[in-house]
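BUG: 3D viewer hangs when loading the predicted structure for this chain

Environment: internal workstation, default settings.
Expected: structure renders.
Actual: progress bar stalls at 90%.

Input used:
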Amino acid sequence: MAPRLDPSPLPATPSKGRVYAKDFDIWFLDFSNTYSLNLRRSPPDISPQKKRALPYFSQLRYYELLKVQYFQGRHTVIRSLFDNGAKEIHSKWVKKPLASPGVVPFPTQLPRTITEPERRELISLLRAILDDVGTVNSSPRSFSVSSSHHLHDGRSSPRRNRRSKRHSDEWEVGSPTPKKTRGVPSEVDTECDPDDDDGRPESVLSTLDRGLVHTTSPSPISRPVPVRLPVVQPSSSPKIDTGKAFYGLADTGNMSKSTITSQVFSDHNDYKLPRITQETQTTVVPSNSAGTKFSLLHRQVMESDSDSFVPSSSTERALEISLSQHERLQQNVRQILRDGSSTYSDFSRPSERDTIQSAAPSLSQNPSRPASPVLSPTQNTTPLMPQRVVYGGYQEFDQRLHDVWPHLPSRLDQAPFVVRWEILRVALHCGIEMDELQLDYDPSLTDQKTLWARLQALPVFRGKSFPERSRSDAWTAALNDKFSTVDWVVVLNATLASNTSKTGPVFHLKLSPLKLELSHRLGRRFGSDRFLELVVPSLGSLDVKSLGETAVENIQRWLVDGPHILLGRIWASFYVKPALPKKATNDNAMGPQSKTVYQERIYLFAEDGNEFHRLEAGSHWSSKGEPVDRHTKMGRGGLIDWLLQVPNNQKQPILKLFSRIALGLSRTYPTVILELEQIRHRTADVLSPTGKVMNDGIARMSHGLARAISGAMGLQDLPAGFQGRFGSAKGFWIRDTTDMSDSIWIETFPSQRKWVCDYIEDDHRTFEVRSESRELKSASLNLQLLPILQDRAINADLMKVQVGEFLRDSLQRDLEAQKAAMENPIEFKLWVHENTSSSRRAEHLKTNQVPFTAGLPSGREDIMSLLLDSGFDPKKLEFLRDIAWKLRMEKCKELQERLNVRVGRSTYAYMVVDFLGVLEEDEVHLGFSSKFANEQSGFSETFLHGMDVLVARTPAHYPSDIQRVKAVFRPELGSLKDVIVFPTKGDVPLADKLSGGDYDGDIAWVCWDPTIVTNFRNAELPDVPDLFQQGILHKESQSYFDLVGTSDITSEFLARAFRFNMQQNFLGMCTNYKEKLCYARNSVRDDAAILLSTLISNLVDRAKQGIIFTEEGWARLRRSFSRVDPPEPQYKKDNWGGTSEPTHIIDYVKFSVGKPTVEMELRALNKSLSDAERFDKDLVRYFEEYERFQRPVEERKDAERQGLYKKPTWEMVLEELKKDIDTLFMEWVGCRDEWEAKITNAFDKWQGIAPTSKVRPKTIRMLQLDGQSAVGLANWELLKASFGFKMYYKKSPAFVWYITGRQLGYLKAVEVSRRADGHPVLMVPTMYAGSRPDKKYVRAVVARSDGRNLAESEAIDEEVATTLSDDEI
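Structure tokens produced before the viewer hung:
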């Protein structure tokens, strides 16, 4: 992981008269790390005698020789020659034999060594280059390479005139730096020499080697949110401790690959990185060349365009580099190598004999044996290893992995990132080869409609069905510099699907349409466009496992270390977590068969790319607010270090530290930026007498801060608290009930802080809201709670019957309400509003309008609302009726499967704690912000007091996971509404009794219905078995500090974390097995149930705690319970298969109550809606007006027989329009795309239908007035909709409604308003998105239509109060 470099800029490239050793050291370390050479840096500030005593003294020759050449100005040429020679040795480019179609060459990569023989091979190459360079030294005196050779390091130094001579034993190739063990000093500790401690301050380079951390807080980018609040006494930023080494690493030349960032090339800042092309190229450097003078090579290279050639400093991944930007330089080098340069590329891979020899002890102990065959630069040799060819049939696996990432043609390199994304997405969907994509970029392609029209016009796309189009709001946001709107960011998602073929890429890539979501902290800091979420099949899935164990390991290594080159950017993975599984259906001889495919979600970060620039000197991280096309290069190590501040958290376990990355990826709402003096870090949690943490995950904030956060979020009411993230803290923050001032402060407790954070940067001091407490409503009883309720019931049969009654009543009430509402469109509009999820509002907020897909809104609730607003009756229009019917069917099916029984006197509320200590053990406080009313029971109160309640948390496994406690009202806690307050008294936190919960945002189910509560008794906390002591579970506890000394600490850290997190997770299997076993044994509290519950509780935190549970251990545990696995419970089936009445509570609720009730009520609902029709005469009236312009049929036939007939204008228009609509409908029928893609493509083509050119232009202009056409209400659009409806309302109502729904709604509104002697009212999109029905108005209208009078009193306002007498009031 990259250290934070000193913010002070390093010296610029030294002039000829003044040189700086610091600059060389940075260059040297980057050169060594780029190719994994493990070259030693000469320890500074120790005497020559001590250097000669070092065991690796002979290895310092490379440092000294390169140092001399650096100050002779030859380092650029040396690096260029080394790069070309190394690429040839390790070349993965292969010429296409006979230009075979469909064959893609393997990419050239930076030749980083992996094994010791490879490293020795490149060291031999470097030695040969230095030999040649040394023979042409133009200096009149030889240069010294002794260890005492000193150069100016920012201080004056006497000149040294010494002659040098080479010794054969000084060219030894040293072994790699041995891995440091924890707590043991390195053999190279040049900065901490106990014999030479003169107390001098550390040099810049010693700090760099050891990775000391320096940081600054960059200025925030001005945005509407988060807001910065004024402070009374701003304090200065705390000083950073520069006396601690990064990772605890002593000084060594073997640095982490991320430890050099922008400053590794501080001596040539004018250079520009060659572009990373999006298409594959082959670079060939001839290997048979004769000797030449270095002066010729030096001159020709330096006269070329060398400023454009800068090797990348990143060693996180193998870069695929296009050489188009510096072709002249490459031509010069090739010519030199062909005509007479050293054959640096002839150091091939070691032979078997050399490989065996390399396994011997370090060569420094055996100076008589050369490191590898020393080939003279003047020899014409033949490589020992033939060129690798991968196209003779079965492709090599690494080639197949490379082929996963397609490359757009280089002609699209200049296109904005969003345009490249969309082009590639469409091409992948259509199965187009990238080299067939003949499209040049021009600025007009930034218009999405233009882009799609251009793509559809290309011959290669003809006849292809296009994918779903990205939402216009997301497209617009992606085109701006920030890749976002004010509150939302554009999210990049892609999936990899397994390729079952043995050839071609291992996975098939699919890019998802752009969409808007809330941002996360890392995205806000570095830009959301730099993050890609990739869903891949689990490595344990059958398709992946079938590739073989070695292939699975290669895939895992490829996922971690890449290279992942996509759309001109280099992506590196840095986090993984489970993704939602998907159902895949396979057709076979036995019929369709579905299977569950488990998946992983991998997060990738764009480290480099075509538009990326080098970091400024002194900067360690990219600046905040960088435009999309002007990012700076930064490795994933820097990303992780910025978030987790690794130097301060090395002692944390690897897996726990890795899991904390999730906090930086939580999608939250950024609100208020606090200052350091406003943060109160508590040193200890609230503890019970037994040492239990009673406030795990919860803290307080000031009333003023809560009000500021609410203002930033636009909330009307002040919540009791917020679930959020703040720096390294996560959890729930409630308002301090004792502080009603305007002061701004927040506190954190140790249980909330997940790592040591300095809180210096604004983003670490921004309070990020995940959710807030909200008004409570009646809740459903979760399926998992039913067996525990039955087990803990005083009368089990009565509990079963009572739960069944709740289900029956809720089903009948919901279905009756819908049936009644559909009698009146106004009432049905209210029903739609009340039965819509909160996600509908969130979708409206993203764009400030109702999102549309083609001709109708995207959501079914919005479709019904639009049609109702337009005047359609749900009982008369079949299309509207069917939508309502399908919605009800899905809800009934979901209810039957999940069995969420609604209990009127129950709710879900955030669990918080009583910091005042006014609640006794087993007491809770629950108050409501408004009256909690339940019509069925007559309950209507604002708080609970003096009654027993049940509290539970899902998932629930132990019998004690439901607790019966007492609800009391305490005035001191009265301001905490819509949350349930638990006590801080007692030995065990109440939340811990509920499935091991805490207070970081956990939600409790609270029930105060007396029929359930009074029939319940608590269970004692179980005696939980120690599964670690029994050997069932094991724990991986290696800390990050244990990785110190590895050559690439970031890759090693991520490799171990990925390896563990991508192993099979048995949580779902164990949960399902426990459910079956408890059902079969009819018990949730026997020893087996308790053991399995304990196992599940541990597996929930598996990733964070590093818990190891193997497939063998799971099989062994199952055998200890039963020789065969228990069968599936009956309630998992669609129909009851028992011979007697159901006795298990879930069987009874589903088969005896739920299923018959749903079937009966749906039959009644369907019967009441049977009179609906497809046709609506109001929708064809517009077409009929134009149809009247045609001549009568008989008159037309007579004229045709006489040869005197000439088609009038409108007849030609309608005739051509009919042809166009028929053509489009035939395409619709034959289209097999996904639904959204199908209607989007048809809609685009529908909009392209224009009036025939056979009529006068004036007529066309009249039909297509610009202003009306832009909003879809021109005469031509209305005519098309009306005519299309008449043609296909019966044959395909979905076709006409989803394509022309907006226009049909307008036509209906006009006709209904005309009959009502009124006028239709248009609304702008923003107002329409926020419109909602008035409940009181709806009730009054419905009552009037039923012949009743409904008078609802309003609250007494000031005007009324002044006109009424005291008696009247």
